[in-house]
Amino acid sequence: MADLFDAVAIPAFTPVNLLTGFLGSGKTTLLSRLLKDPALGDAAVLINEFGEVGLDHHLVERLDDNMVLLQSGCLCCTVRGELADAIRDLHARRERGEIPPFRRIVVESTGLADPFPVLSTIKADPVLRHHFRPGNVITTVDAVNGLSQFDTYVESNRQAAIADRLVITKIDLAGEDACSDLIARLAVLNPDAPVVDACDGALDLAALVIEDDVPRAATLQSSSGFYCDAQQSLPAAGRAHSADFRSLFIIVDQPVDWTAFGLWMTMLLNRHGDKVIRVKGILNIEGEETPVAIHGVQHLVHTPVHMQAWPGDDRRSKIVFIVDGLDGNLLKRSFEAFAVARRAAEVA
Ligand SMILES: Nc1nc2c(ncn2[C@@H]2O[C@H](COP(=O)(O)OP(=O)(O)OP(=O)(O)O)[C@@H](O)[C@H]2O)c(=O)[nH]1
């Protein structure tokens, strides 16, 4: 196997790119696009998720030895050691020729991660610092929810402030005019980083990641001038996380009735969207061969996506909720009530 790999020159210091951005802002979507770019075909990927169970590595729909899931906690607090271990392990396996000789690592952090400790892990580790170096930090910012997230969550400010590239997502939903205040805020948080539109068809994805290349696409500018109250928008010091985030995980054994589920989720987000910061899941829908991925970000319900195949043998539906100040039992009871109501309707 090593013969196949010999031709690829491994850089003296392999860059480690951080892909960050608040919950549901489009990191995994951008990662999937990045990995399809031939210029990034030789990247190893580390994915970290907040919550008991990770789904993102399934949603990326690329599974190989160079894709590693860092689970069970947040990269900036509980799994920092795991990050260093995972990079060391990739390095050792590359040295032994056991995996394709990646020339870059892309780390997708949780939507709640503070990027500073993540980056310092690479610099501080006695082994890693001789073989790896920090690459560009790419931060996704949600055009629909971004401004209110800056106002509410210190994490999103830190993620934007450290970026080398700021990628605004969901402009297709928000409209360009609605983004000028957001762009103005970004100009205060991080005046040096180019701000680009994820939906821009001309966007050079590889240039987001590869250092020294300025992304080829129109850099966005605010039409309303660069006003912003810096005192409000800059990160506050203090706790690792700005709110009492909890994750909740529901598994459903039986195939789900799509109409009833859609109704339940829409009602949940209408009523509690301020507290349900993120919902994502892979559902086994009655009558469908392949799974459907669902996404909600606060009050916003995204269009469901039909996946090409089941990621493994487990055909149960799995849904992850990240809530801020919402009673998890209430949510579970509401879901059970929905399931019970459905069973009653089936019997009738
Ligand atoms: N319309 C639209 N939807 C988008 C865009 N970017 C992402 N989305 C949708 O937003 C939802 C969340 O996207 P993800 O890529 O999973 O977001 P994430 O940041 O990885 O989420 P977490 O890992 O949970 O923090 C999905 O339904 C995506 O399809 C965009 O530019 N336009």
Describe this structure in words.
This protein is α/β, with parallel strands linked by helices and 348 residues long. It folds into 2 domains: 8-233, P-loop containing nucleotide triphosphate hydrolases (Rossmann fold); 245-347, Hypothetical Protein Yjia, Chain: A,domain 2, CATH 3.30.1220. It is 34% helix and 22% strand. The chain has helices at 2-6, 27-36, 56-59, 80-95, 115-124, 146-152, 154-161, 171-174, 180-189, 205-209, 230-233, 258-272, 328-347; strands spanning 14-21, 43-48, 67-70, 104-108, 132-142, 165-169, 195-197, 245-252, 276-283, 292-297, 300-301, 305-306, 317-324. A 7-stranded parallel sheet has the order 3-2-4-1-5-6-7, with helices on both faces. Strands 8, 9, 10, 11, 12 and 13 form a 6-stranded antiparallel sheet that branches. Helix 3 (56-59) links the parallel strand 2 and strand 3 (67-70). The longest helix is centred in the C-terminal third of the chain and has 20 residues, at 328-347. Residues 1-6 and 222-239 have low confidence and may be disordered. Bound molecules: guanosine-5'-triphosphate. Guanosine-5'-triphosphate (GTP) binds at residues 21, 23-29, 56, 111, 169-170, 172-173, 198-199, 278, 280, 295, 302. Guanosine-5'-triphosphate binds next to helix 2, helix 8 and strand 9. It comes from Phyllobacterium salinisoli. This is GTP-binding protein. GO terms for molecular function: hydrolase activity; nucleotide binding. Keywords: Chaperone, Hydrolase, Nucleotide-binding.
